[in-house]
Amino acid sequence: MKRIIILTLLAAALFLPALAQAAAEVLEEHVTFTIAADGAVQRQVRQKVLLHDAVAFGRWGEWFQTYNPDLEEIRIIRSVTTQADGTAVPTPDNGILDQGVFAVQNAPDFTHLREKMVSHTGLEPGCTVDFEYVIADRRPFRTAVYESMAGYYPIRRKTVTIAGRLPAPVRTHGLARGAGRNTFTVTDVPALLQDNHFTAAADTPYVYFELRSPLAAARAAITAQSRDGLPDLLAELKLGPDALPGEILTRLRHLLNERLAPVALNAERTAYTLRPLPAVWRSGYATPLESAALAAAVLDHYRVEHQVAALAEIVDGQPLLDDPGWAVLTPDGPVCPASLPADGRVTVALDGRILVESAPTAVELWIDLKESEGGALEGPARLAVDHPPAAAALARLLPLAGAKASGVETVWATPGRIVQTGTVTAALADDRLTVSDALADYLQLPALVAAAERCGRLSLPAPVQLRLHLTVRTLKARRWVTAPPQKVANAAGSSRWAWTAGDDRLELSAQLDLKATRFERPAMAELQALLAPLLAASHKVAFAEAP
């Protein structure tokens, strides 16, 4: 399953309203999984796709599939384009090739992985592409299989059949429904567009089954690791035998996240087989599970409490573990990655317990400015961010255009909370202040509103809270002209934005409590209305009226 990891708020399924509006449509798709007695899997796919216009050529012109030739093989059975006049244009032999995988180009130990590419030729508006291929395991290695029942374009009919003995029940979600024993069919499924900012498995119909436990496979891989290579890493940590846990964690986080380049490789691509720890450390790069194994070995050595966990989406109360991330958790926060991603995934212990659920992102910012001779504004500021979705810095979150921060000091920094203090300076040029969009951009509010305009469903990883209080004390009395206050309260939450002016004082306060995390089309208007006051305030000017 390919999931797009998100930046701060989460992901969303974008549903097009009608089949006819799409650039292409899948007329039919048949997927058959055949499970051998030893657990090896064969996936055979037959597709027939109608391309309405040239917009679809870029997506359907070439097909790519990453695979491990040591574990699996790909056979192309049929690739033929039937043009509008009935002319059949098969893909030539030189249109099917193997090539290197971009994600591992800087990781020599994994350059044996390949990518199969098929070029569909003869494309024109109104043509039909018939494509059939097989991905067959050379030996049993898979742990879990995920099959989406929706796609980038509408699907008229899709059927998934699972043949052979399964060790666990098949799980389905959304539009998938049984059409017989281990056969699942959907019809007239709208397009599911996965946005770079908003997507969630819970918005996607799918079929999912496990052949063996991915958590058990990870535990076995980590347990099998020899500790022979630890001395080199321990030497670089430069810690004495009496080092405190906090010092150990700080140094380990730095080395793992700065010394080892990440390789975005699903553990299943290597059959949950990890390179020896010495090889991982010497190479200068690591897969997520290798980083977790290395961190666990070091923490074991120093007897620091920790546990390895999978990062997975939870749907219908159960984790999807076909493509999990991996983390090592301690009572003082995660070690690798240095902070947990704010993409809606939760941490699942290797024994299956859900450890950490998404917590609200909360931003609080206080600024107190005083005017000096010449119109300069200066004063203290304090920023506190709980469960930051991205790196939080006072200098990047100032609500006034042209404002700068200096003397910034981080007084608290853990994966779950960041607190900074500093001095903010701004100019009261021409007796006016201009609101910036820094806070709205940090919380991805413009992207969220844009998604709400075109999406049928939205999913946020966690609730969002914002508190802003800005005070400007002036040397002389001014008559300020400001935008009127705005206040909204509905099922999605509440928001408020208001200026308060006095003789020699101007205050700006903002508040957002985005409590809902899932939205269907009827609720999009409430979401947009809730965020409107904050977005409308950006770039608004408060100015002093001439006497």
Rg estimate, integer Å: 27 Å
CATH first level of the largest domain: Mainly Beta
Mean pLDDT: 85
* Strands side by side in the biggest sheet: 6-5-9-3-2-11-14-13
Overall morphology: globular
Count of alpha/pi helices: 9
**Which class of secondary structure composition applies to the elements?**
alpha+beta
CATH topology of the largest domain: Immunoglobulin-like
Query: Uncertain segments of ≥5 residues (pLDDT<50)?
Result: 1-20
Report how far the terminal alpha carbons are from each other.
Answer: 65 Å
Q: Architecture of the largest domain, CATH level 2?
A: Sandwich
Q: Portion of residues in helices?
A: 10-25%
Largest sheet: 8 strands, mixed
State the total count of DSSP E strands. 38
Report on the structure:
The chain has 547 residues and is of the alpha+beta class. It folds into three domains: 11-210, Sandwich (Immunoglobulin-like), CATH 2.60.40; 215-356, Roll (C8orf32 fold); 361-545, no CATH class. The protein has nine helices and 38 strands. It is globular and about 85 Å long. 38% of the residues are buried. Residues 1-20 have low confidence and may be disordered.
